[in-house]
């Protein structure tokens, strides 16, 4: 498979698919459910970035997944996870959850609070192998280790990451103070960066990006300069696999 976003593209927050279901407000960076965009089917192995806000006490009931690497990153509040493997866990900001759906599983996700919204990113990666045994894992990450530098949250199976997936892909985050600069990780011509601005304003490759804007580029890397204190997520993915 090949990528569906060429070279370099800025994806503005307001250009994403948006749905307000009452209990769920969600933005889709790629075609998903009732949102279809022919040029945004995936970016290499990156298939989904959903930016969700779930109302207190509400959530997604038990539903199936298979052959997908699912990464959940809470930004605010607390999320209850239950699955057919027997896990029942709550994840909060600075936690990251990884689930290799593999040969198939069922899970449910609910806002664990009756009074506060939960906001999260859910990221799906297409796996580099099919029908593996399903796996669940989560870890807590110290935000101090992301100050002014990239903190690795997820990496390939067999690598040095605490959380791993069945794909040659990495998920990193950084908190960058206004006026400071950090470099994007070097990549090969066969890899791509998908950088999401969670909050703040930055400049990358002469493009100004604002909250929830993203920049997708293949085979190149550059500098990130924070115009305002910024929180960034960088997804490094293979463009062919």
Give a brief description.
The protein is an all-beta fold and 241 residues long. It has strands spanning 8-11, 17-20, 24-28, 46-54, 59-65, 69-76, 79-83, 88-91, 95-100, 105-111, 118-125, 135-140, 151-156, 163-165, 170-176, 181-183, 191-204, 207-209, 214-218, 223-238.
Which structural class is indicated by helix and strand composition? mainly beta
Gap between N and C termini: 7 Å
Please mark out the parts with pLDDT under 50 across 5 or more consecutive residues, or reply none: 1-5
The tally of beta strands, per DSSP, is 20
Number of domains: 1
| CATH topology grouping | Jelly Rolls
The biggest beta sheet reads: 9 strands, mixed
Count of separate DSSP helical elements: 0
- Per CATH, the superfamily is Jelly Rolls
CATH second-level architecture:
Sandwich
| Highest CATH level, the class | Mainly Beta
Mean pLDDT: 96
Order of helices and strands: EEEEEEEEEEEEEEEEEEEE
Gyration radius, to the nearest Å?
A: 17 Å
Protein name: Pirin N-terminal domain-containing protein
Cofactor: Fe cation
InterPro entries: Pirin, Pirin_N_dom, Quercetinase_C, RmlC-like_jellyroll, RmlC_Cupin_sf
GO molecular function: metal ion binding
Q: How are the SSEs ordered, and which strands pair?
A:
Blueprint: E1 8-11, E2 17-20, E3 24-28, E4 46-54, E5 59-65, E6 69-76, E7 79-83, E8 88-91, E9 95-100, E10 105-111, E11 118-125, E12 135-140, E13 151-156, E14 163-165, E15 170-176, E16 181-183, E17 191-204, E18 207-209, E19 214-218, E20 223-238
Parallel strand pairs: 13-14
Antiparallel strand pairs: 1-19, 2-3, 3-4, 4-11, 5-10, 6-9, 6-11, 7-8, 7-10, 9-12, 13-15, 15-20, 16-20, 17-18, 17-19, 17-20
